[in-house]
């Protein structure tokens, strides 16, 4: 019996980029590319038909942009894919809207092969992908008002917590907001990685967040980070 494969859908209007990503991912024993899409509308249709585990989503595409496609895919409970927004650094000033739409992280178009592979595996495992060089810029827009676009509406989950975070959970959340991995959090707090995972799970439950990325966004909106 073979191990379960991580099913990936590649979305980008540049065929060469999709071909490059496919080449990198398809040679991995635990990853298979199940489809490609060149527009946001195609992405929505393919996500529904193929039910991938992970989607790499371009932002600027004809027909429908990646943010709207992300919003529609996340709204479909039958899909359940984790979405990584693919971007180039210092572009797409409205990227933070993708987090509001439900994206689980970001990936640079010029990312190294190992970063792409690690990102796909992280999202498939239910972890958000917090790339410091991109995500800190995006989260800064949540923390303060942007002159480029109106702030996203407060979600229903961004209300006072019914159960407050413990002091340790607050420490873990602060490190999550600093784009730390579980291993780095464990080292910083002198605790085991298994303990970190337990704290992260509790934080997600208390915030009503899908993953680490959304937890950090909500924490910024609620003044917890």
UniProtKB/TrEMBL annotation:
PROSITE patterns: HTH_LUXR_2, RESPONSE_REGULATORY
SMART domains reported in the protein's UniProt record: HTH_LUXR, REC
Positions of the Response regulatory domain: 7-124
Residues found modified as 4-aspartylphosphate: 58
Name the UniProt record assigns to this protein: Response regulator transcription factor
Coiled coil ranges: none
SUPFAM superfamilies, alphabetized: C-terminal effector domain of the bipartite response regulators (SSF46894), CheY-like (SSF52172)
This protein's UniProt keywords: DNA-binding, Phosphoprotein, Transcription, Transcription regulation
InterPro entries from the UniProt entry: CheY-like_superfamily (IPR011006), NreC/VraR/RcsB-like_REC (IPR058245), Sig_transdc_resp-reg_C-effctor (IPR016032), Sig_transdc_resp-reg_receiver (IPR001789), Tscrpt_reg_LuxR_C (IPR000792), WalR-like (IPR039420)
HTH luxR-type domain boundaries: 158-223
């Amino acid at each position: 019996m073979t191990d379960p494969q991580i099913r990936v859908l590649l979305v980008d209007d540049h065929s060469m980029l999709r071909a490059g990503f496919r080449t990198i991912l398809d040679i991995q024993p635990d990853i298979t590319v199940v489809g490609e899409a060149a527009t946001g509308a195609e992405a929505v249709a393919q996500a529904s038909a193929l039910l991938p585990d992970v989607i790499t989503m371009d932002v600027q595409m004809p027909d429908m942009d990646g943010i709207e496609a992300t919003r529609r895919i996340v709204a479909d409970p039958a899909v359940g894919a984790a979405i990584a927004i693919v971007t180039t650094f210092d572009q797409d000033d409205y990227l933070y809207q993708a987090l509001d739409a439900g994206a689980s992280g970001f990936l640079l178009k010029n990312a190294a092969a190992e970063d792409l592979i690690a990102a796909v595996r992280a999202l498939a495992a239910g972890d958000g992908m917090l790339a410091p060089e991109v995500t800190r810029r995006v989260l800064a827009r949540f923390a303060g008002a942007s002159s480029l676009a109106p702030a996203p509406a407060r979600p229903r989950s961004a209300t006072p917590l019914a159960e407050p975070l413990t002091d340790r959970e607050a420490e873990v959340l602060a490190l999550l907001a600093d784009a730390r991995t579980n291993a780095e959090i464990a080292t910083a707090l002198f605790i085991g990685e298994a303990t970190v995972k337990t704290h992260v799970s509790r934080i997600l439950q208390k915030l009503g967040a899908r993953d680490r990325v959304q937890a950090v966004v909500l924490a910024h909106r609620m003044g917890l980070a």
